[in-house]
Write a structure and sequence with these properties.
By secondary structure, the protein is an all-alpha fold. The protein has one domain. It is built from two helices and no strands.
Length: 49
């Protein structure tokens, strides 16, 4: 769950620093699948315990 918060904070920080919307969309397109992958692995690991 902490990774999701870091992702959201990063996107908010980029907006605060006036990053273009195109770049923000690129960050989301690249980073969100990675965040979701990590979260799914964490859930699988917890159910295996």
């Amino acid at each position: 769950m902490l990774l999701k918060f870091a992702y959201e904070d990063f996107i908010a920080d980029r907006r605060f620093k006036n990053t273009t919307e195109v770049n923000i969309q690129n960050y989301k397109r690249l980073l969100l699948p990675f965040v979701e992958f990590c979260e799914s692995k964490d859930k699988l690991r917890k159910t295996a315990l």
